[in-house]
Amino acid sequence: MRNHELIERLSHLVGDNGLVLDAEGQGPYVRDWLGKWQGSTPVVVRPRNATEVSAVMRLCHQTRTPVVPQGGNTGMSGGATPDGSGAQVILSLNRMKRIREVDPVNNTLCADAGVLLADVQAAAREVGRFFPLSLGAEGSCTIGGNLATNAGGTAVLRYGNTRDLALGLEVVLPDGRVWNGLRGLRKDNAGYDLKSLFIGSEGTLGIITGAVLKLYPAPAGRVAAWVGADTPAQIVALLSRMQGVCGERLTAFEMMSAHCLDLVVAHVSGAASPLAARHAYHALLELSDTEPAGLPALLEAALGAALEDGVIQDCVVAMNDTQVQTLWRLREGISQAQVRAGKAVKHDIALPISRLAAFVEEADLALVSDFPGLPIINFGHIGDGNLHYNVLLPPDVAPAEYARLTAALNRRVHDLVAQRGGSISAEHGVGQLRRDELRRYKSPVEMDLMLMIKRALDPNQLMNPGKLL
Protein backbone atom coordinates (compact mmCIF):
# COMPACT_ATOMS: atom_id res chain seq x y z
CA MET A 1 0.00 0.00 0.00
CA ARG A 2 1.27 3.46 -0.88
CA ASN A 3 1.93 5.86 1.95
CA HIS A 4 -0.79 8.32 0.99
CA GLU A 5 -3.40 5.55 1.00
CA LEU A 6 -2.22 4.29 4.37
CA ILE A 7 -2.28 7.81 5.81
CA GLU A 8 -5.76 8.42 4.49
CA ARG A 9 -7.05 5.26 6.12
CA LEU A 10 -5.27 6.05 9.39
CA SER A 11 -6.87 9.50 9.37
CA HIS A 12 -10.29 7.87 9.27
CA LEU A 13 -9.35 5.87 12.37
CA VAL A 14 -7.76 8.54 14.60
CA GLY A 15 -8.68 11.85 12.95
CA ASP A 16 -6.35 14.41 11.44
CA ASN A 17 -5.30 15.57 14.92
CA GLY A 18 -4.08 12.05 15.60
CA LEU A 19 -1.46 12.18 12.83
CA VAL A 20 1.88 13.97 12.64
CA LEU A 21 3.00 14.30 9.03
CA ASP A 22 5.40 17.24 8.76
CA ALA A 23 9.13 16.73 9.22
CA GLU A 24 9.44 19.35 11.95
CA GLY A 25 6.61 17.85 13.99
CA GLN A 26 8.03 14.35 13.56
CA GLY A 27 11.50 15.40 14.74
CA PRO A 28 11.08 14.49 18.44
CA TYR A 29 9.60 11.12 17.46
CA VAL A 30 12.17 9.93 14.89
CA ARG A 31 15.27 10.57 17.01
CA ASP A 32 16.08 9.50 20.53
CA TRP A 33 16.82 12.04 23.23
CA LEU A 34 20.45 10.92 23.49
CA GLY A 35 21.07 11.77 19.83
CA LYS A 36 22.44 8.30 19.09
CA TRP A 37 19.70 7.02 16.79
CA GLN A 38 17.62 8.71 14.11
CA GLY A 39 15.24 7.25 11.55
CA SER A 40 12.27 8.27 9.45
CA THR A 41 8.58 7.49 9.24
CA PRO A 42 5.72 8.20 6.84
CA VAL A 43 3.46 9.10 9.76
CA VAL A 44 3.28 9.33 13.54
CA VAL A 45 -0.07 7.94 14.69
CA ARG A 46 -1.41 9.15 18.06
CA PRO A 47 -4.49 7.16 19.12
CA ARG A 48 -6.63 8.37 22.03
CA ASN A 49 -7.60 4.99 23.51
CA ALA A 50 -7.19 1.23 23.21
CA THR A 51 -10.05 1.02 20.70
CA GLU A 52 -8.19 3.30 18.31
CA VAL A 53 -4.92 1.44 18.92
CA SER A 54 -6.73 -1.77 18.04
CA ALA A 55 -8.07 -0.29 14.81
CA VAL A 56 -4.64 1.01 13.83
CA MET A 57 -3.02 -2.36 14.50
CA ARG A 58 -5.68 -4.20 12.47
CA LEU A 59 -4.94 -1.94 9.52
CA CYS A 60 -1.17 -2.32 9.88
CA HIS A 61 -1.56 -6.09 10.19
CA GLN A 62 -3.69 -6.23 7.03
CA THR A 63 -1.26 -4.04 5.07
CA ARG A 64 1.93 -5.61 6.51
CA THR A 65 3.05 -2.23 7.84
CA PRO A 66 5.75 -2.38 10.54
CA VAL A 67 4.99 -0.45 13.74
CA VAL A 68 7.30 1.17 16.30
CA PRO A 69 5.46 1.74 19.62
CA GLN A 70 6.59 4.80 21.54
CA GLY A 71 5.89 6.26 24.98
CA GLY A 72 7.89 9.20 26.27
CA ASN A 73 10.89 8.37 24.03
CA THR A 74 13.24 8.61 27.01
CA GLY A 75 14.89 5.19 26.60
CA MET A 76 18.63 4.56 26.75
CA SER A 77 18.92 1.76 24.16
CA GLY A 78 17.24 3.03 20.99
CA GLY A 79 14.21 0.83 21.53
CA ALA A 80 11.63 3.40 20.38
CA THR A 81 13.35 4.84 17.29
CA PRO A 82 12.43 3.78 13.73
CA ASP A 83 15.02 2.75 11.17
CA GLY A 84 15.95 4.82 8.16
CA SER A 85 13.81 2.98 5.62
CA GLY A 86 10.84 5.30 5.99
CA ALA A 87 8.55 2.28 6.06
CA GLN A 88 7.91 2.01 9.81
CA VAL A 89 4.90 3.76 11.34
CA ILE A 90 5.43 5.26 14.79
CA LEU A 91 2.52 4.59 17.13
CA SER A 92 2.78 7.11 19.96
CA LEU A 93 0.71 6.69 23.11
CA ASN A 94 1.23 10.28 24.29
CA ARG A 95 -2.46 11.19 23.92
CA MET A 96 -3.54 8.32 26.19
CA LYS A 97 -3.29 10.14 29.52
CA ARG A 98 -6.29 9.01 31.53
CA ILE A 99 -6.10 7.83 35.11
CA ARG A 100 -8.93 5.36 34.89
CA GLU A 101 -9.37 4.46 38.54
CA VAL A 102 -7.66 4.88 41.91
CA ASP A 103 -8.68 2.38 44.58
CA PRO A 104 -7.07 3.21 47.95
CA VAL A 105 -8.78 0.26 49.64
CA ASN A 106 -7.32 -2.25 47.18
CA ASN A 107 -4.15 -0.14 46.94
CA THR A 108 -4.29 -0.05 43.14
CA LEU A 109 -4.33 2.51 40.35
CA CYS A 110 -5.43 1.89 36.77
CA ALA A 111 -3.93 4.16 34.13
CA ASP A 112 -3.56 4.55 30.38
CA ALA A 113 -0.10 3.66 29.10
CA GLY A 114 0.60 7.25 28.06
CA VAL A 115 0.29 8.69 31.56
CA LEU A 116 3.54 10.24 32.75
CA LEU A 117 5.20 8.45 35.66
CA ALA A 118 5.14 11.70 37.66
CA ASP A 119 1.36 11.92 37.15
CA VAL A 120 0.91 8.37 38.42
CA GLN A 121 2.90 9.31 41.51
CA ALA A 122 0.77 12.46 41.98
CA ALA A 123 -2.53 10.56 41.59
CA ALA A 124 -1.38 8.14 44.31
CA ARG A 125 -0.46 11.01 46.64
CA GLU A 126 -3.91 12.56 46.23
CA VAL A 127 -5.45 9.58 48.04
CA GLY A 128 -2.68 9.25 50.63
CA ARG A 129 -0.88 6.45 48.82
CA PHE A 130 2.56 5.98 47.28
CA PHE A 131 3.70 4.65 43.91
CA PRO A 132 7.38 3.84 44.45
CA LEU A 133 8.84 3.73 40.93
CA SER A 134 11.23 6.69 40.71
CA LEU A 135 13.49 7.60 37.78
CA GLY A 136 15.42 10.63 36.67
CA ALA A 137 13.06 10.91 33.67
CA GLU A 138 9.83 10.58 35.67
CA GLY A 139 8.58 13.95 34.41
CA SER A 140 8.71 12.77 30.79
CA CYS A 141 8.67 8.95 30.71
CA THR A 142 5.34 7.12 30.48
CA ILE A 143 4.08 4.20 32.49
CA GLY A 144 3.69 2.17 29.28
CA GLY A 145 7.36 2.69 28.43
CA ASN A 146 8.33 1.82 32.00
CA LEU A 147 6.44 -1.46 31.66
CA ALA A 148 7.76 -2.20 28.17
CA THR A 149 11.34 -1.94 29.43
CA ASN A 150 10.73 -3.23 32.98
CA ALA A 151 12.31 -0.04 34.33
CA GLY A 152 14.21 -0.17 37.62
CA GLY A 153 15.07 3.10 39.35
CA THR A 154 16.17 3.89 42.87
CA ALA A 155 13.66 1.95 44.97
CA VAL A 156 14.03 -1.57 43.52
CA LEU A 157 15.73 -2.72 46.72
CA ARG A 158 12.47 -2.36 48.66
CA TYR A 159 9.68 -2.40 46.06
CA GLY A 160 11.05 -4.27 43.05
CA ASN A 161 11.20 -3.43 39.34
CA THR A 162 8.20 -2.23 37.33
CA ARG A 163 7.27 -5.88 36.76
CA ASP A 164 6.78 -6.25 40.50
CA LEU A 165 4.55 -3.17 40.62
CA ALA A 166 2.05 -4.31 37.96
CA LEU A 167 -0.96 -6.49 38.75
CA GLY A 168 -2.68 -6.41 35.38
CA LEU A 169 -2.33 -5.15 31.80
CA GLU A 170 -4.37 -4.23 28.79
CA VAL A 171 -2.51 -5.14 25.58
CA VAL A 172 -3.31 -4.71 21.90
CA LEU A 173 -1.86 -7.64 19.97
CA PRO A 174 -0.16 -7.32 16.56
CA ASP A 175 -3.35 -8.38 14.74
CA GLY A 176 -5.45 -5.79 16.60
CA ARG A 177 -7.09 -8.05 19.15
CA VAL A 178 -7.27 -6.62 22.67
CA TRP A 179 -6.37 -8.64 25.74
CA ASN A 180 -8.04 -7.09 28.77
CA GLY A 181 -6.09 -8.33 31.77
CA LEU A 182 -6.79 -5.30 33.97
CA ARG A 183 -7.31 -7.27 37.16
CA GLY A 184 -6.34 -5.83 40.50
CA LEU A 185 -5.58 -9.25 41.96
CA ARG A 186 -2.58 -10.22 44.02
CA LYS A 187 -3.43 -13.91 43.68
CA ASP A 188 -4.47 -15.34 40.33
CA ASN A 189 -3.29 -18.81 39.35
CA ALA A 190 -5.81 -19.29 36.53
CA GLY A 191 -3.34 -20.10 33.77
CA TYR A 192 -0.15 -18.53 32.45
CA ASP A 193 1.03 -15.18 33.77
CA LEU A 194 0.53 -13.36 30.48
CA LYS A 195 1.32 -9.89 31.81
CA SER A 196 4.90 -10.89 32.58
CA LEU A 197 5.33 -11.89 28.94
CA PHE A 198 4.66 -8.35 27.75
CA ILE A 199 6.50 -6.51 30.55
CA GLY A 200 10.06 -6.04 29.37
CA SER A 201 9.28 -7.11 25.79
CA GLU A 202 10.07 -3.61 24.44
CA GLY A 203 7.02 -3.46 22.18
CA THR A 204 8.06 -6.51 20.15
CA LEU A 205 5.04 -8.66 21.12
CA GLY A 206 2.21 -6.15 21.46
CA ILE A 207 1.33 -2.67 22.67
CA ILE A 208 0.60 -2.11 26.35
CA THR A 209 -2.31 0.37 26.50
CA GLY A 210 -3.24 0.24 30.19
CA ALA A 211 -2.09 -1.13 33.52
CA VAL A 212 -3.25 -1.82 37.06
CA LEU A 213 -0.43 -0.77 39.38
CA LYS A 214 0.29 -1.48 43.04
CA LEU A 215 0.12 1.35 45.55
CA TYR A 216 1.60 1.45 49.04
CA PRO A 217 1.03 3.41 52.24
CA ALA A 218 2.71 6.80 51.92
CA PRO A 219 5.95 7.08 53.93
CA ALA A 220 5.64 9.78 56.57
CA GLY A 221 9.36 10.51 56.76
CA ARG A 222 12.79 9.57 55.54
CA VAL A 223 16.42 9.93 56.55
CA ALA A 224 19.55 9.38 54.52
CA ALA A 225 23.28 9.05 54.97
CA TRP A 226 26.40 9.49 52.87
CA VAL A 227 29.18 6.99 53.56
CA GLY A 228 32.86 6.81 52.66
CA ALA A 229 34.69 3.49 52.30
CA ASP A 230 37.92 2.08 50.91
CA THR A 231 36.59 -0.77 48.76
CA PRO A 232 33.43 -2.04 47.05
CA ALA A 233 33.59 -5.04 49.40
CA GLN A 234 33.07 -2.70 52.35
CA ILE A 235 30.06 -1.14 50.63
CA VAL A 236 28.54 -4.59 50.05
CA ALA A 237 29.23 -5.53 53.67
CA LEU A 238 27.47 -2.35 54.83
CA LEU A 239 24.46 -3.20 52.64
CA SER A 240 24.15 -6.59 54.28
CA ARG A 241 24.41 -5.03 57.74
CA MET A 242 21.81 -2.37 57.01
CA GLN A 243 19.37 -4.95 55.63
CA GLY A 244 19.77 -7.01 58.77
CA VAL A 245 19.27 -4.07 61.11
CA CYS A 246 16.73 -1.96 59.22
CA GLY A 247 14.76 -4.54 57.24
CA GLU A 248 12.25 -3.05 54.80
CA ARG A 249 12.91 0.45 56.08
CA LEU A 250 16.00 0.40 53.86
CA THR A 251 14.49 1.94 50.73
CA ALA A 252 17.56 2.74 48.62
CA PHE A 253 21.27 1.94 48.60
CA GLU A 254 23.36 3.61 45.89
CA MET A 255 27.11 3.49 45.26
CA MET A 256 29.57 5.65 43.35
CA SER A 257 33.33 5.69 42.98
CA ALA A 258 35.50 8.66 43.92
CA HIS A 259 35.89 9.54 40.25
CA CYS A 260 32.10 9.84 39.89
CA LEU A 261 31.91 12.25 42.81
CA ASP A 262 34.84 14.26 41.41
CA LEU A 263 33.00 14.63 38.10
CA VAL A 264 29.83 15.82 39.81
CA VAL A 265 31.69 18.36 41.94
CA ALA A 266 33.56 19.62 38.87
CA HIS A 267 30.63 19.84 36.47
CA VAL A 268 27.43 20.35 38.48
CA SER A 269 26.81 23.79 39.93
CA GLY A 270 26.71 23.91 43.73
CA ALA A 271 27.85 20.30 44.20
CA ALA A 272 30.26 19.54 47.04
CA SER A 273 31.49 16.40 48.76
CA PRO A 274 29.56 15.70 51.98
CA LEU A 275 32.73 14.33 53.65
CA ALA A 276 35.93 16.19 54.44
CA ALA A 277 38.31 13.37 53.51
CA ARG A 278 38.60 11.67 50.12
CA HIS A 279 37.40 8.05 49.90
CA ALA A 280 37.69 5.53 47.08
CA TYR A 281 33.98 4.65 47.23
CA HIS A 282 30.83 6.27 48.50
CA ALA A 283 27.34 5.03 49.30
CA LEU A 284 24.04 6.89 49.62
CA LEU A 285 21.45 5.03 51.67
CA GLU A 286 17.94 5.99 52.62
CA LEU A 287 15.46 4.76 55.21
CA SER A 288 11.74 5.53 55.08
CA ASP A 289 8.73 4.46 57.11
CA THR A 290 5.11 5.28 57.84
CA GLU A 291 6.23 5.75 61.47
CA PRO A 292 9.37 7.87 61.10
CA ALA A 293 10.04 8.79 64.73
CA GLY A 294 12.71 6.15 65.29
CA LEU A 295 14.46 6.39 61.91
CA PRO A 296 17.28 8.81 62.85
CA ALA A 297 18.27 6.80 65.93
CA LEU A 298 18.12 3.53 63.98
CA LEU A 299 20.32 4.90 61.20
CA GLU A 300 22.84 6.49 63.53
CA ALA A 301 23.16 3.34 65.63
CA ALA A 302 23.69 1.11 62.58
CA LEU A 303 26.29 3.41 61.04
CA GLY A 304 28.02 3.93 64.37
CA ALA A 305 28.50 0.19 64.75
CA ALA A 306 29.80 -0.04 61.17
CA LEU A 307 32.35 2.71 61.90
CA GLU A 308 33.52 1.02 65.10
CA ASP A 309 33.96 -2.29 63.29
CA GLY A 310 35.92 -0.67 60.44
CA VAL A 311 33.35 -1.60 57.80
CA ILE A 312 33.23 2.04 56.68
CA GLN A 313 35.60 4.96 57.23
CA ASP A 314 33.26 7.98 57.53
CA CYS A 315 29.64 9.04 57.22
CA VAL A 316 27.26 11.96 57.54
CA VAL A 317 23.53 11.72 58.28
CA ALA A 318 20.86 13.92 56.67
CA MET A 319 18.08 14.59 59.15
CA ASN A 320 15.62 16.69 57.16
CA ASP A 321 14.17 16.59 53.67
CA THR A 322 16.35 19.43 52.38
CA GLN A 323 19.51 17.64 53.46
CA VAL A 324 18.25 14.36 51.98
CA GLN A 325 17.57 16.04 48.63
CA THR A 326 21.05 17.59 48.66
CA LEU A 327 22.60 14.13 48.90
CA TRP A 328 20.36 12.76 46.16
CA ARG A 329 21.35 15.61 43.82
CA LEU A 330 24.93 14.33 43.98
CA ARG A 331 23.82 10.88 42.87
CA GLU A 332 21.50 12.24 40.20
CA GLY A 333 24.16 14.60 38.89
CA ILE A 334 26.37 11.83 37.55
CA SER A 335 24.62 11.60 34.17
CA GLN A 336 24.87 15.34 33.61
CA ALA A 337 28.52 15.37 34.67
CA GLN A 338 29.39 12.52 32.29
CA VAL A 339 27.94 14.40 29.32
CA ARG A 340 29.94 17.51 30.17
CA ALA A 341 33.18 15.62 30.79
CA GLY A 342 33.35 13.47 27.67
CA LYS A 343 31.71 10.61 25.78
CA ALA A 344 30.87 7.69 28.02
CA VAL A 345 30.76 4.08 26.88
CA LYS A 346 27.92 2.88 29.08
CA HIS A 347 27.31 -0.54 30.62
CA ASP A 348 24.01 -1.24 32.37
CA ILE A 349 24.88 -4.53 34.04
CA ALA A 350 23.50 -6.73 36.81
CA LEU A 351 25.31 -9.25 39.00
CA PRO A 352 24.54 -11.25 42.11
CA ILE A 353 25.27 -8.86 44.97
CA SER A 354 27.73 -11.35 46.47
CA ARG A 355 29.85 -11.11 43.30
CA LEU A 356 29.81 -7.35 42.79
CA ALA A 357 33.03 -6.55 44.64
CA ALA A 358 35.03 -9.27 42.90
CA PHE A 359 33.71 -8.14 39.51
CA VAL A 360 34.70 -4.51 40.14
CA GLU A 361 38.19 -5.52 41.25
CA GLU A 362 38.71 -7.77 38.22
CA ALA A 363 37.16 -5.34 35.72
CA ASP A 364 39.18 -2.40 37.04
CA LEU A 365 42.43 -4.33 36.64
CA ALA A 366 41.49 -5.52 33.15
CA LEU A 367 40.52 -2.08 31.87
CA VAL A 368 43.54 -0.31 33.36
CA SER A 369 45.73 -2.90 31.63
CA ASP A 370 43.93 -3.03 28.27
CA PHE A 371 42.69 0.57 28.03
CA PRO A 372 45.17 2.69 29.99
CA GLY A 373 44.29 6.28 30.71
CA LEU A 374 40.50 5.93 30.32
CA PRO A 375 38.62 6.92 33.51
CA ILE A 376 36.17 4.36 34.90
CA ILE A 377 32.85 5.79 36.07
CA ASN A 378 31.41 3.14 38.34
CA PHE A 379 28.09 3.83 40.05
CA GLY A 380 24.69 2.26 40.43
CA HIS A 381 21.92 0.71 42.44
CA ILE A 382 24.13 -1.66 44.38
CA GLY A 383 21.22 -2.67 46.61
CA ASP A 384 19.75 -4.65 43.71
CA GLY A 385 23.02 -5.59 41.97
CA ASN A 386 22.75 -3.07 39.11
CA LEU A 387 25.95 -1.21 38.19
CA HIS A 388 26.47 1.45 35.55
CA TYR A 389 30.07 0.54 34.88
CA ASN A 390 30.96 3.22 32.34
CA VAL A 391 34.22 4.30 30.72
CA LEU A 392 34.83 7.92 29.80
CA LEU A 393 36.37 8.82 26.43
CA PRO A 394 37.61 12.31 25.54
CA PRO A 395 35.00 14.75 24.15
CA ASP A 396 36.96 15.11 20.89
CA VAL A 397 37.39 11.40 20.21
CA ALA A 398 36.96 10.68 16.50
CA PRO A 399 33.80 8.74 15.51
CA ALA A 400 35.75 5.78 14.14
CA GLU A 401 37.87 5.55 17.26
CA TYR A 402 34.78 5.89 19.46
CA ALA A 403 33.15 2.98 17.61
CA ARG A 404 36.29 0.84 17.88
CA LEU A 405 36.75 1.48 21.59
CA THR A 406 33.05 0.98 22.31
CA ALA A 407 33.07 -2.47 20.71
CA ALA A 408 36.27 -3.48 22.50
CA LEU A 409 35.13 -2.17 25.89
CA ASN A 410 31.72 -3.80 25.58
CA ARG A 411 33.29 -7.15 24.78
CA ARG A 412 35.74 -6.93 27.70
CA VAL A 413 33.22 -5.79 30.31
CA HIS A 414 30.34 -7.99 29.19
CA ASP A 415 32.49 -11.11 29.02
CA LEU A 416 33.47 -10.54 32.66
CA VAL A 417 29.82 -9.99 33.57
CA ALA A 418 28.82 -13.26 31.89
CA GLN A 419 31.60 -15.18 33.60
CA ARG A 420 30.16 -14.15 36.97
CA GLY A 421 26.56 -15.04 36.09
CA GLY A 422 25.38 -11.51 35.33
CA SER A 423 23.30 -9.75 32.69
CA ILE A 424 24.34 -7.17 30.09
CA SER A 425 21.04 -5.31 30.48
CA ALA A 426 19.72 -4.57 33.96
CA GLU A 427 17.18 -1.76 33.57
CA HIS A 428 17.67 0.02 30.24
CA GLY A 429 16.51 -2.75 27.92
CA VAL A 430 18.18 -4.28 24.87
CA GLY A 431 16.71 -2.13 22.09
CA GLN A 432 19.12 -1.57 19.23
CA LEU A 433 22.06 -1.00 21.54
CA ARG A 434 22.54 -4.57 22.81
CA ARG A 435 20.58 -6.55 20.18
CA ASP A 436 23.60 -7.92 18.35
CA GLU A 437 25.34 -8.85 21.60
CA LEU A 438 22.38 -10.80 22.92
CA ARG A 439 23.21 -14.02 21.09
CA ARG A 440 26.68 -14.10 22.61
CA TYR A 441 25.36 -13.96 26.15
CA LYS A 442 22.09 -15.90 25.90
CA SER A 443 22.09 -19.67 25.55
CA PRO A 444 20.78 -21.20 22.31
CA VAL A 445 17.79 -22.53 24.25
CA GLU A 446 16.92 -19.08 25.61
CA MET A 447 17.23 -17.50 22.17
CA ASP A 448 15.13 -20.23 20.62
CA LEU A 449 12.38 -19.81 23.23
CA MET A 450 12.27 -16.06 22.72
CA LEU A 451 12.14 -16.42 18.95
CA MET A 452 9.34 -19.00 19.23
CA ILE A 453 7.28 -16.60 21.35
CA LYS A 454 7.95 -13.77 18.89
CA ARG A 455 6.90 -15.88 15.91
CA ALA A 456 3.75 -17.08 17.68
CA LEU A 457 2.51 -13.60 18.59
CA ASP A 458 3.94 -11.62 15.69
CA PRO A 459 4.30 -14.00 12.74
CA ASN A 460 4.62 -11.15 10.24
CA GLN A 461 7.46 -9.53 12.25
CA LEU A 462 5.69 -6.15 12.33
CA MET A 463 6.19 -5.16 15.98
CA ASN A 464 9.19 -2.92 16.61
CA PRO A 465 11.43 -4.63 14.05
CA GLY A 466 15.15 -4.55 14.66
CA LYS A 467 14.81 -4.25 18.42
CA LEU A 468 15.71 -6.82 21.09
CA LEU A 469 15.82 -9.82 18.72
UniProtKB/TrEMBL annotation:
<dbReference type="InterPro" id="IPR006094">
    <property type="entry name" value="Oxid_FAD_bind_N"/>
</dbReference>
<keyword id="KW-0560">Oxidoreductase</keyword>
<dbReference type="InterPro" id="IPR016167">
    <property type="entry name" value="FAD-bd_PCMH_sub1"/>
</dbReference>
<dbReference type="Pfam" id="PF01565">
    <property type="entry name" value="FAD_binding_4"/>
</dbReference>
<dbReference type="InterPro" id="IPR016166">
    <property type="entry name" value="FAD-bd_PCMH"/>
</dbReference>
<protein>
    <submittedName>
        <fullName>Quinone-dependent D-lactate dehydrogenase</fullName>
        <ecNumber>1.1.5.12</ecNumber>
    </submittedName>
</protein>
<dbReference type="GO" id="GO:0071949">
    <property type="term" value="F:FAD binding"/>
</dbReference>
<dbReference type="GO" id="GO:0102029">
    <property type="term" value="F:D-lactate dehydrogenase (quinone) activity"/>
</dbReference>
<dbReference type="GO" id="GO:0022904">
    <property type="term" value="P:respiratory electron transport chain"/>
</dbReference>
<dbReference type="InterPro" id="IPR036318">
    <property type="entry name" value="FAD-bd_PCMH-like_sf"/>
</dbReference>
<keyword id="KW-0285">Flavoprotein</keyword>
<dbReference type="InterPro" id="IPR016171">
    <property type="entry name" value="Vanillyl_alc_oxidase_C-sub2"/>
</dbReference>
<dbReference type="InterPro" id="IPR051264">
    <property type="entry name" value="FAD-oxidored/transferase_4"/>
</dbReference>
<dbReference type="InterPro" id="IPR016169">
    <property type="entry name" value="FAD-bd_PCMH_sub2"/>
</dbReference>
<comment type="similarity">
    <text>Belongs to the FAD-binding oxidoreductase/transferase type 4 family.</text>
</comment>
<dbReference type="InterPro" id="IPR004113">
    <property type="entry name" value="FAD-bd_oxidored_4_C"/>
</dbReference>
<feature type="domain" description="FAD-binding PCMH-type">
    <location>
        <begin position="37"/>
        <end position="218"/>
    </location>
</feature>
<dbReference type="Pfam" id="PF02913">
    <property type="entry name" value="FAD-oxidase_C"/>
</dbReference>
<dbReference type="InterPro" id="IPR016164">
    <property type="entry name" value="FAD-linked_Oxase-like_C"/>
</dbReference>
<keyword id="KW-0274">FAD</keyword>
